[in-house]
Amino acid sequence: MSQIRQFLNEPLFASPVFGYELPDCELLNQALLAACAARRTSEQSMAVSNQIGWHSAPDLFLRKEEAFRSLCAQIGQVLTHVAQTTLPAFDLSIHDIQAHGWVNINPKGGFNTPHAHQGFHWSGCYYVAVPDAQDNRSGLIEFLDPRASVSMRMPDESVLFAPKFQVRPRAGTMLIFPSFLNHWVYPNQDDDERVSVAFNARVEARAHPQGAAVAP
Ligand SMILES: [Fe+2]
C-alpha cells in the first residue's frame, strides 16, 4: 500500500443504528409506567403493527404529563446528537426536528409485525419496561436488511452482509435507526408486560408548519 493512495471511503446506503442509555431513569420509568397505564384505561388502542398489544394515539410530543415531557426532552437531545453525528455539517440553527410518538404495551403474546416508518428520516424507541426473557427471543427487536440485491452472505455472518440484526432491549435504553429500515418485534413470552415509547422524526427547514418541534 505504500504507493497506493485511497481516495474514497463512503459507507454507501448505510443503515446506522444507534443505542443510548438514559441516566438515572428508574424514577422516570416508574412515572412513565403510571402515565401509560392511565392512558390505557381510558383510550382505545390503535391498530397498526401491534398484534394483541395496546398502541396509543401518536400524540407523545403534545402530552402534558411530566413523565412524557421529560422523555420528549431527552428524545430531542438524542435526535440532535444523531443528526449531528451522521451529518457533521448539520446546522441546527436553520432546521427543526419534527416528531411524533406513541406508547406500545405488549402483554404476553404481544408482538409487532414487520414494518418501516415511511415519510420520516429517523425512528426510535425508548424502553420503559422489558421483562427478563425466559425465551431467548422474547421481545427482541429485529432489523431486516433493506438491500434486496444482497445475495451473498459472509461465512461468519459479518454484519456488512448479514440479512438481519437483533437487539435485546433493556429498560432505560433508546434505539434510533433510519425510518426506512424494516423491523419487527418478537412475541413477549413473559407474564410481565413489555412497555415502550416509539417515535418518528424528520429534519425540516425551519418554520415548517406541521408537527411538534422537539429541538430548537
Ligand atoms: Fe416500528
Folded structure, characterized:
18% of the residues lie in helices and 31% in strands. By secondary structure, it is of the alpha+beta class. The chain has a single domain (18-147, 155-215), classed as Jelly Rolls. The strands form two sheets. Strands 1, 3, 4, 6, 9, 11 and 12 form a seven-stranded antiparallel β-sheet that branches. A five-stranded antiparallel β-sheet has the order 2-5-10-7-8, with no helix packed on it. The chain is globular and about 70 Å long. The model has no long low-confidence stretch (mean pLDDT 89). The protein binds fe (ii) ion (FE2). Fe (ii) ion is lined by residues 115, 117, 123, 183, 198.
SSE order and pairing:
Layout lengths: L17 E4 L4 H17 L7 E2 L2 E2 L10 H21 L8 E12 L4 E5 L6 E8 L11 E4 L19 E4 L5 E6 L4 E3 L8 E12 L6 E4 L1
Antiparallel strand pairs: 1-9, 2-5, 3-4, 4-11, 4-12, 5-10, 6-9, 6-11, 7-8, 7-10
Bound molecules: fe (ii) ion.
Oligomeric nature of the chains = single chain
H/E element sequence: EHEEHEEEEEEEEE
- Figure out the total of helices: 2
Question: What small-molecule ligands were found?
Answer: fe (ii) ion
Quickly give the CATH architecture.
Sandwich
Fraction of helical residues:
10-25%
Q: Which class in CATH terms? A: Mainly Beta
Average pLDDT level: 89
The domain count comes to 1
Percent in strands: 25-35%
Termini gap: 46 Å
Largest sheet: 7 strands, antiparallel
